[in-house]
Amino acid sequence: MQVGINMGDMAGGQPAMLDIEELLATRLLVQGNSGSGKSHLLRRLLEQSAEWVQQVIIDPEGDFVTLSQKYGHLVVDGERSEGELAGIASRIRKHRVSCVLSLEGLEIDDQMRAAATFLNAMFDAEHEHWYPVLVVVDEAQMFAPAAGGEVAEDARKMSLGAMTNLMCRGRKRGLAGVIATQRLAKLAKNVAAEASNFLMGRTFLDIDMARAADLLGMDRRQAEMFRDLKRGNFVGLGPALSRRPLPIAIGDVETQARSSSPKLMPMPEAVVDVEDLIFTPDAEELTRPVTRRARPAPRPTTDILAELSQATPLTEAPLSSPSGSDAGAAETSSEAAEERARKLSDVLETILSDRESGYRTDSALYQDFLVRSRMARISGSPMSLADFRRRVAIARSGVDEETAAGEAWATALKLADRVSEDLQGVFLMLAKAAIKAEPCPSDARIARAYGTHSARRARRLLGYFEEQGLIIVHADPFGKRIVGMPDLQAETAPGAADAPDEGAENAEAAE
C-alpha cells in the first residue's frame, strides 16, 4: 500500500509528499544546526504518519512525550533496569504499540546504554513480530559518535553497535531508521551511509556544508546555500522524496515540545530602591528551612592509625631471606594474601551465581563487585575493571582447576586477546569445551554467555569467530554441530545447536 504524507510546501507551492512505504525501505537522515528546525521536522513526520505506521522515538531531551496526549504514544521512562527495558521493547514490537523512550534526566552514559538495550531488544524480536516500525532517533550523534569522547568505552560500543544494527540490518526486520544530527562530522560514517533519503537544513561549518552537498549530489560551489536556509527549511533528496534536490518548507504541527527556543521579553520597569528589593528577604524566606551542605566530620584518629598499620612501610635496608621473626611475618603476609584472594573469589562467585548477571553490563557488575568487596571488608587496592572483566570471562567459561593449569588453556587465554572483551567469555567457553572434548554448547548457552536471549546473535558470534580464523564450525553425519580450534589442535564433541540451556534451567529450578 502506497501512502504519501504531506511534509510541507516546495518552492512552487506544491505539497512536498513523502512516500512512507518507500521510507520504510530506504531510511532517512536529517541534518541541521541547533535551531534549524530538526525537531519540528521530526514532529511533522511523526504526526502525519501516526495513523499509518508504528513509531518508536528515542528522545534524549523528553521533547516528544507530548505526542502521547493527542496520538496515544506510550511514554517509557529510560530510568529502568536493562532487563525491564528489554522486556518492554519486546512487548512493544509484539503488540505494535507506538512509544517514546524518554531519556531526559539521565547521564549521557546511561542514555546510551538505555537506548542500546531498547534498540537491541527490538532488533532481536521473534520473526513473527517483524512488523514495520519507524524508529526515530533524535540527536543521533550522541548514540553513534564518530569518535570516542568522554563517555565510557563500553557504553559507546554498545550504543554504536545498536545504531549500526538499526541502520544496516534493520530493514529486513521491519525497522526503518530516521536519524537526526546537528553535524554529519560527529556521526559515525557507517551509520550515516545507510540512509538513502536526506533532508539537509541550515549549517555553517565548511566541512558539514561540503558533506551535505556531496550527499545531495550538488556542486561544491552550491554548498554555500546551506548557510542561507531559514528555520524550518530543508533541501530534500531520495527515493521517498524526490529524484533531484528540492527545497522544502516544513508545514505546521499540532503538538508542541515542552521546551522551546528562548524569546526576548521586555525588561521590567526600573525599581527605585533596588538594594532593599534584593537584600531584604521575604517573609516566606524566613520560615523556609535553610539547607546547607554539611561539612564532613573529621576522621577519628583510630581509623587513620588503623590504615597506617595496614600499609607496608618503605625501608632502605637490603632484602634478605626470611628467618626467625621475618619468616613468621612472611608467612602471615602469605596467609593474608590467600585470605584476600579467597574473599575476592567468593564475592565474584556470589555475583555470577545470579542467573540475571549474564544480562547485565560489565560496568554494572563491576560496581556491584566493588560495593560487595567493601561490605566484606577486603583490604588492599580494588581490582581494576580490566582485571575484573578477565576474571568474569574465565569464570563464565566454566573451566576447572585441572584444565586451567594446562598449557592448552594458557594458549586459549592468549587467543582470547584477539577478540574484544565482551566476546572473551564466549570464546573461552568454546575453548574449554574443545580442550575437554565436551559437547558443543547450544545456541541458548552461547547466547547466555554473551548476555542475550537471542539464538540468532549466538550464531552470528560463531560466524565472527570463524571469519577471524579462530574456530572451524562443521557438523557430524547426524547434523550436530562441532567447533574445532586449529591453534589448540582440539575440537568439541558433537552437540545439538537447538538444545535448551541446561544451566539456566537448573538455576530456575534452584530458585
From TrEMBL:
Source organism, top-level taxon: Bacteria
Boundaries of every AAA+ ATPase domain copy: 24-301
Region (Disordered): 310-341, 489-511
Compositionally biased intervals (Acidic residues): 499-511
Biased composition (Polar residues): 310-322
Gene3D superfamilies cross-referenced by the UniProt entry: P-loop containing nucleotide triphosphate hydrolases
Residues forming coiled coils: none
Skewed-composition ranges (Low complexity): 323-335
Protein name as annotated: Putative ATPase
